[in-house]
């Protein structure tokens, strides 16, 4: 294996993938603000076009809020089979250049092109060629980040979005990280970013001033990750056969929740997000798990397994709410709720109990 700083990693991220596919297939939607998923009065946005994003419409936003932000927003029903079809086209392009392709979802993937199968030895030129081929063969645009590790490649792919590319070379990496806002660090979510902001950490250079021991005290194992990435260290390899074992989502609330109606409302939003992710990945799950954390950080999980699998969103929502109600009320304020689907089966062999390996 090459030394850490001699790897050539590309992160390719399709631009507003679901929404862009809809605009590609339906020319009348081009240039208009559209939201994939949900309806004008219920549900959650799965994806938004760039025209909609200008109004603050984002994925995971409730449809009602999205419509309020953008009164002219057009809601479009998702077509995951179509998205999977185009995703397979894109993946076939990747595999012409390297076998080391690690899909993160239908619309993004890491590629290790240290020893590329074709093209010039420059990762930058390979990324440029791949983006051009995606455009020519699918009619869609992609953004790319190029660097020597996964963290930097992932962050770099967002710099010149949409339809852009950014390269972080080893000699420029530390300066890039020092000036990078904490909220843009891959792996640091909104809640963690706020905690860091509250103690005066706004940029990578600020994070670098905190020693490893203090970071692990504050954030547990994740503290080690934060300590390394602000120094440009990320030794994770591109894994071509990622096996997804669960799909989940959770939300940490800015204020603790006590009322059952409030908790139910938040759980429904989380359930919508989880089901969209599971549907998008084409997985069938047997087990649903509820996670909740009290204001004092005491954490609990409750699970239920169903045969042959959870076959509808309605069943998933019903069982999720049932798990919450089984607690008989919460004795303290709740700061976090989460749901996870796991124990996957093949979509084509749901009766056989075969574990699923996600295709890109």
Across the major sheet, the strand order is 5-6-1-7-8
Assign an overall shape: globular
Cα separation of the termini: 25 Å
Q: What share of residues is helical?
A: 25-40%
Overall description:
- By secondary structure, this protein is an alpha+beta fold.
- Among the domains are: 174-229, 5' to 3' exonuclease, C-terminal subdomain (DNA polymerase, domain 1); 246-345, DNA polymerase, Y-family, little finger domain (Dna Ligase, domain 1, 2-Layer Sandwich), CATH 3.30.1490.
- It is 37% helix and 21% strand.
- The chain has helices spanning 17-25, 50-53, 63-69, 80-97, 123-138, 150-156, 170-178, 190-198, 204-207, 212-219, 222-229, 260-281, 313-325, and strands at 9-14, 34-36, 47-48, 74-76, 101-105, 108-112, 142-147, 165-167, 246-257, 284-294, 299-305, 334-345.
- The strands form three sheets. The chain has a five-stranded mixed β-sheet. Strands 9-12-10-11 form a four-stranded antiparallel β-sheet, with helices on one face. Strands 3-2-4 form a three-stranded mixed β-sheet.
- α6 links the parallel β7 (142-147) and β8.
- It is globular, with a radius of gyration of 21 Å.
- Its EC number is 2.7.7.7.
- This is DNA polymerase IV.
- Its main location: cytoplasm.
- Its cofactor is Mg(2+).
- Residues 9-189 form the UmuC domain.
List keywords for this structure.
single chain; DNA polymerase, domain 1; alpha+beta; globular; DNA_polymerase-Y; metal-binding; 360 residues; Dna Ligase, domain 1; four-stranded antiparallel sheet; 13 helices; 12 strands; transferase
